[in-house]
Amino acid sequence: MKSKTILAFLLPLLLRALIASFPHSGQGNHHGSKTAHGGDYEAQRHWMELTLHSQWYTYDVTYWGLDYPPLIAYGSYVMGWARHILVGEESVALFDSGGYEDPVHKAFMRSTVMFWDAVVYFPIVYLLCKRLSGGSQDESLRLWLEAVIQPALVVIDNGHFQYNNVCLGLALGAFHFMTLSDAIGFYGVIGSILFCLALNWKQMGLYITLRQCLRICFLKVFS
To answer: I want to staple 44 with a disulfide (CB 3.0 to 4.6 A). Which of 113, 120, 161, 181 is the partner?
Structure first.
């Protein structure tokens, strides 16, 4: 059973690593200008150096200005700091690095998406799958694999550096704890914290949560 669990964890990571062999959003795309690089990769790359240089919401907002809530900005800062050390200061040279597409740097960016999946999205999804499986280890692993290798999530997040799975994982965590029997006590507090974190990571957290709330209401009315 332990070997099954390890393999179930490694498979989605391997799948995410394989995505790296394909082009990403905005790759080599300069829109005919050296100052107008495009794509999600460039936006996320730029936000890391923006926050590292303390230019969060102010520096040239017309060029991939940071337009997400503060929590993801803090995440960008941490990743930018790690990038400065592991990749090199040229990768975070705010005034000179537009369109920086060094292969080592891209590998670093891919690894950050996998890291966030592994520490936020994977464990929260497993918690939900374990709950839905009714205690069956095989069933929980099956449900978990179906969730973490879902093509849209893998391709968008790992293929185009979106970090959406962090928001989704936090929102799912909030849903899980808020629907437990002790939701008005300790678990409710945990759920509330996760909900606030989801909203402060990306605005899409509001849509995810609203959808879940409507679904619960629908089930209660028609069950």
So the answer is: 161
CB distance 52 to 73 below 8 Å: no
pTM beyond 0.90, yes or no: no
Burial (0-12, 13-18, 19+ Cβ within 10 Å), 64: buried
Model confidence over 6-34: pLDDT tens digits? Answer: 777 888 888 888 887 777 777 776 665 66
Length of the chain: 223
Q: Which residues contact 125 (CB under 8 A, 6 or more apart)?
A: 144, 147, 148, 169, 172
The dihedral of CA 91, 93, 94, 100: what is its sign? negative
Query: What sign does the dihedral 181-183-186-187 (CA atoms) show?
Result: positive
pLDDT tens across 120-134, in order?
999 999 888 888 887
* Burial (CB count <10 Å: 0-12, 13-18, 19+), residue 162: buried
- Read off the tokens for 61: 């907002």
